[in-house]
C-alpha cells in the first residue's frame, strides 16, 4: 500500500485514537511527537502489528483469522520467506465474504461482524482505504493463517510430509484401487477428500471413537497430540520433513482409523497430527468460522456488601506496609545477588520485621522499584594497589531513591498514586512464580509482556459483574479474561494460576475487595482502556484515593502508660515527631508508639532539647498531656549531656567528677582505654564515633561537642539510590 494512503487515513483520526494506537503498538510516545508519515511507516512493521494483534478480543481475532483464511483460498498460501512478502493489497478479500464466513445469514451476527471489522480498521490492523475490499496487514496473513481452526488442505499436508508408500497406504485405507504412481495415488486420495458426498460416506462409517475425536478437532482446532506418525530418519529426526506410520499404531482406535484413511495427517511437529481442512468442513457441514461476539455472561453471584469498606482497609494497610518497608530498606539496604534479585535472607528479614508473608514482601518490593521509590546503588570498590590486577566487580544494594524523601512528605492518598499506577502497567505478575520447585526470588522475574494485557482483561471480566462477587467464580474469570485478551492468556493451568495470582495482587491493593471490583478498580480499568495508565494516571487516581482514605491525623492522644495513639493515618510531620521520641508498636486503624527513657535519649541524641520536645508534643496533644510523660522527658533531659565527647581524638569531659570516675573504672568500657587526666576530663584511645557508640551501649547518654564547646547535632548522612525518572 502506498504510504500516503495510510498517512491520509491517519489524518482523519482523533489525536486520542492515534495516541491509543501508539500505546498499544508499544511506541510509548505522544502522538504529537510522531508525524503521520512516521506513524504510517511504523504501522507497516510486523513487530508493531504483532503488538496490536495482542490487544484484540476473541471476535476480533476470529475476524482476522477469517480474513487470512479467505485470502489463502483466493490467492494461495502466504509465502513463508519474509523477503517474498507481497503487497497487502494483492491479498484483498471481499468484505461481504468475510461477514458470510463469520455470521452466515444471522442478521444479529452480521451486525456484530461488521462492528468487529470496523474496530479492526480503527486499530490499523485492516488497512485503508476501507470499502468493499478488506486489506489486512501482512503479519495477519503470516500469523493467523489458521485463524478459522480448519487446518491446512490435505494436498499440502500429504505432499509435504508423506513419501510414496504412505500415500499408497492411505489410498488402500479408502478402498481405492492401487495406482501406478505416487502422483496418481495422491490424486485419487484428494478426489475422495474433495468430494463432500464421498467424504461424508467415509465419515458415516467411522467408529464411535473416531467420531468423538472429530467434533472437537473440527470446531476447536485441528491439532491433536498422538504417537501416530514418526519422522523418517535416524534418532527421531527427519531432515526432509517426511513421516511414516508407527508400526504398532498409536494405541487409540479412533486415531488409527482416521490416520489410515488420510483423515488425520502429519502436522510437521513431533507427535502432533492435524485434521485436514476438507475433513473439518465436512464435519461442520458449512464453511463457517467460529465467532463469539459477546463475552461470557457472569453466573448468578451473591452481592458484595463490603467492597468499598474492604478496599479502604486494604489501602490503609498497604500504605503503612510500604512506609515501613521503605524505612527498613533505608536503615539496612538489601543485598543484590550476583545472579540478580534480592538475597533470600533479606526477604526473610523484612518479612519477619514487617510481620508479613514473604510473597507480600516480594510484591511490595516490586511495586516500590517500579514506582521509582527503591533503586540499586553500587557499593564503593577498593581498587587494588597493583594496577595490573583486575578490580573486583562492584556489589549492589537496594535502598530508597532520591524520590523517597519527598514521597514521605505527601499525604497517604498521594503516596499511593505512583504505587497503583506502577501496578497497572507492571510487566510482571509478582505473586506468580513459574517454577514451584524453586525458591522465589524478589526482583528476579523476567520481563512479562503479557502481564498488563491479562490484568486489563481480568478487570474487564470483573467489571461485567458490578457489585457482585465475580472473583469467587474462577471458571467464569478464566473464560471472560481469555475472551477479552486471548493472545495474552496462557492456556491450561498456567493461565488459571496467573489469573489467580493477579486477583490476589488486586486484593492487596484494594482494587478487588469482597471478591468484587471496587471504585478504585473501575478507575484503573478506565486508565488502561484510554491508555492514560502509561502517561498521566495521577489526575484520575488521586481523587479516587483521596475519597477512600481519610485525611491524615495531625494530633495524638498521649496516655499515662507512656504511649501515644493516633487513630487513623498520622500526618508525615506527626509521624516523624513520634518516631523520634517513641518506638512504634502496632499498626492498623490506630497506630501506637511506646515512649521510654531509651527512646527519649535517642531523640535528645539527634539534637532535640527536652523543653523543645515537650513543647512540640503538647502542640500535637489531643486532650490533656499526662504528667508521667512530662516527668520522664524532663528526667532524661537532666541527665543527658552530663558528659561530653570532645572532638580531639578524643576527650570525654563532664562537670560530674563522680560520673567520670565511674566511667574510668567501668569494665564494659575498658576497650576504649579511658584515662582520667583531670577531675573533669577523660581521654579515650578510640575515635569519637566509637567512644559515643560504646558509651551509649553501656547505658550512658553522651552528647557530641565541637572544639568551640557548641553541642553538635548528629545527623547521619542518608544514602539514596539515583531515581530513574527526572
Rg (C-alpha, Å): 36 Å
Q: In the residues, how many domains can be counted?
A: 5
By DSSP (H or I, 4+ residues per run), the number of helices equals 31
Strands side by side in the biggest sheet? 19-20-18-17-21-22
Number of strands: 22
The percentage helix is: 40-55%
Which regions are unreliable across 5 or more consecutive residues at pLDDT < 50?
none
The termini sit apart by 41 Å
State mean pLDDT (0 to 100 scale): 85
Keywords: ATP-binding, Helicase, Hydrolase, Nucleotide-binding
Domain Helicase XPB/Ssl2 N-terminal: 559-678
Region (Disordered): 286-307
Protein name: Helicase-associated domain-containing protein
Please explain how this structure is put together:
InterPro entries: XPB/Ssl2_N. One of its GO terms (molecular function) is helicase activity. Residues 286-307 are annotated as: Disordered. Keywords: ATP-binding, Helicase, Hydrolase, Nucleotide-binding. This is Helicase-associated domain-containing protein. It is a single chain. With 726 residues, the chain is of the alpha+beta class. The protein folds into five domains: 3-143, no CATH class; 154-284, no CATH class; 307-381 and 393-547, no CATH class; 557-637, no CATH class; 642-700, no CATH class. The chain contains 31 helices and 22 strands. The strands form seven sheets. It has a six-stranded mixed sheet, covered by helices on one side. Strands 13-14-16-15 form a four-stranded antiparallel sheet. A three-stranded antiparallel sheet has the order 3-7-6. Helix 22 (474-484) packs across helix 23. The longest helix is centred in the middle third of the chain and has 25 residues, at 307-331. It is elongated, with a radius of gyration of 36 Å. The two termini are 41 Å apart. The model has no long low-confidence stretch (mean pLDDT 85).
